[in-house]
Amino acid sequence: MISAQSWTEARVHALRDVTPTVREITLKPVQGAWLHQPGGHLQMQVLVSQGVTSRPHTRSYSLIGQPDGEFYRIAVKRLDEGRGGSKAMWQLAVGDRLRISEPQNHFALDLTAPAYLLVAGGIGVTPLVGMAQVLAKRDAPVRMLFGARSLAELAYLEPLQSVLKDHLKSAIAEKGEFIDFDAELAKLPPKALMYLCGPLPMLDAARKAWTQAGRPLADLRYETFGSSGRFAPQAFRVKIPRHNLDIIVPADHGLLDELELADVQTMYDCRRGECGLCAMDVLSVDGDIDHRDVFLSDEEKASNKRICVCVSRVLGEITLDSAYRAD
């Protein structure tokens, strides 16, 4: 069963490129915008090309900044090698309509901590803009680290600088600059929280430093990119004997999307590999599973007995079992 969504329609109100590869999209819901808290996101149905046809796929995007009761703002990074969602979003024009969910939040900001460290990697800055604004307004002790490939890719740098001042520090990869998590964590008082959104390698480095510093993992809060993995996307074969199903997942489409198109009822929620609701049992695999989630433990990933179908991929062929049982 697919998790219930309360869908409504929204119109594209404005478009703005905030970096050469990041486009901000302002949406105006036809029935009015719901208020949302920092860390919230929208799910939306995007028409993704599949051969000569286009089919609706669900994508999730973080809400940017503070709510105004009229518009939602999201930002989409152009991924030429992605699953097609970013390409479809970049093709939107002012006036276009699409279906969106009500705001949801799996990355809520806890306002009771003694101090905060916000860490963004590239497009991962989007949910942290609102957090920085709220924390700065409350005069909370907050610092932010912002990593990007180039200075031009520091999206929303100006609004962040305006509220964080010298408490914002960037790390530009092309300049040889990288975040030193060990040094940065040493500056945090006990019980401080770190909020991080970025690619899996950044999360892995942060989690390692956090654990070595003896800090509780519960105080490390994060979101990741479902698109980041160990291998470049390529087509792979999926069999589900319970459904007598044998399909090919194209390189530019996700496993969950293809299961939905094949009418395999699959539970899911976050679509970012964080909640684990979409995890399915692996009966066999001929090749490698590219685990792109942060829900399964390292031991579970090594065993290859489960896969989070919303983000993970395969190099080769995989046989799955579904939750479907005949009445």
List the helices and strands and how they pair.
Layout: E1 7-19, E2 22-29, E3 40-50, E4 53-62, E5 72-77, H1 85-90, E6 97-101, E7 104-105, E8 116-121, H2 126-137, E9 142-148, H3 157-164, E10 168-172, H4 181-186, E11 193-198, H5 200-212, E12 220-224, E13 236-240, E14 245-249, H6 255-261, E15 279-290, H7 298-303, E16 306-308, E17 313-321
Parallel strand pairs: 8-9, 8-11, 9-10, 11-12, 13-17
Antiparallel strand pairs: 1-2, 1-6, 2-5, 3-4, 3-7, 13-14, 15-16, 15-17
Read across the widest sheet, the strand sequence of neighbours is 10-9-8-11-12
User: Please, how many domains?
Assistant: 3
Q: Compute the separation of the termini in Å.
A: 14 Å
Give helix and strand order, one letter per element, not per position. EEEEEHEEEHEHEHEHEEEHEHEE
Gyration radius, in Å: 20 Å
Quick one: biggest sheet? 5 strands, parallel
Low-confidence stretches: none
From the 3D coordinates, which CATH architecture of the largest domain would you assign?
3-Layer(aba) Sandwich
Provide the helix percentage: 10-25%
CATH class of the largest domain: Alpha Beta
Please identify which CATH superfamily of the largest domain we are dealing with. Answer: Nucleotide-binding domain of ferredoxin-NADP reductase (FNR) module
Number of helices: 7
Beta-strand fraction estimate: 35-45%
Q: Name the shape in a single word.
A: globular
CATH topology of the largest domain: Rossmann fold
Mean pLDDT: 90
Give the beta-strand count.
17
